[in-house]
Amino acid sequence: MIKTSSRWAALALLAGLAAWAFAARASGEGVAIPAPADDSRSGATTETAVLAGGCFWGVQAVYQHVEGVSRAVSGYAGGDARSATYPVVSSGVTSHAEAVRIEFDPRRISYGRILQIYFSVAHDPTELNRQGPDVGPQYRSTIFAQSPEQARVAQGYIAQLGQASAFRSPIVTTIEQGKPFYAAEAYHQDYLVRHPAQPYIVINDLPKIEALKARFPQVYRAQPVLVGGAS
Predict the structure, then answer these.
(1) Residue 229 pLDDT
(2) For 30, what's the count of Cα atoms within 13 Å in the CB-facing half-sphere?
(3) CA 155 to chain centre
(4) How confident is the model at residue 228 (pLDDT cuts 50, 70, 90)?
(5) Phi first, then psi: what are they for 74, rounded to 5°?
(6) Relative to the CA of 85, which of 12, 128, 188, 189 has its CA 20 to 30 Å away?
(7) Is the dihedral of CA 151, 53, 51, 217 positive or negative?
(8) Average pLDDT in the 40-58 region?
């Protein structure tokens, strides 16, 4: 028989897990936010965005379901090549964040729309150095701008969302430029597709895919574009 104190501790733990699961599912519903005022599209055929917003499994999975995206790769950005490995980044002592490199056709989807999805369903931009159950600077909300133009669009959109009070709390997303991206280990790629029944994925990431489908039906694609090639 469990002692009374232990029993209450167990009940408290279960209640905490239930509350965490509820909050995670709620955050997975996404947030209705205005489209970026600057939503111009370039004449290029390919553009790259690098975004960090918590565990890269879910962020990668979201963009794999976006029309106009040709590839989404999980990896690390913000630090150097020597520390760009999962065990080291997970320690929280590097400058890296778990990030996703998104290759897209700007004639089909704008960088502004990529950012709208990022702020609306891919993560919570009001959480500082964490996302849900994941805590540490490696889970920070950061846009790794690939050009001065991307930095300008991102800065303008963050200001726009702030002025519109789109979120209940201030946006803490930072913008970093000139930081290389390093692809993560193979076992991290296409993680949601390969492990759809894992509890972490079910609670934190599958709701994001449903939110993408509900909030952005015009760009949602049912079959994800995978790093592994099959889709």
Answers:
(1) 67
(2) 24
(3) 18
(4) confident
(5) -75, 145
(6) 128
(7) negative
(8) 92
> Strand, helix or coil at 166?
coil
Q: How far apart are CA 225 and CA 218, in angstroms?
A: 17
User: Which residue is listed with tokens 């090639």?
Assistant: 229
Question: pLDDT per residue over 108-117, tens digit each?
Answer: 999 999 999 9
Structure tokens at 163: 């002025």
Short-list 57, 61, 110, CA closest to 223: 61
Domain 33-215 is found in CATH 3.30.1060.10: yes
Closest CA to 136 of 93, 191, 176: 93
Q: Structure pTM?
A: 0.87
Query: Do you know the residue count of the chain?
Result: 231
Burial class from Cβ neighbours inside 10 Å (0-12, 13-18, 19+) for residue 90 reads middle
Tokens (6 digits) for 204:
């934190």
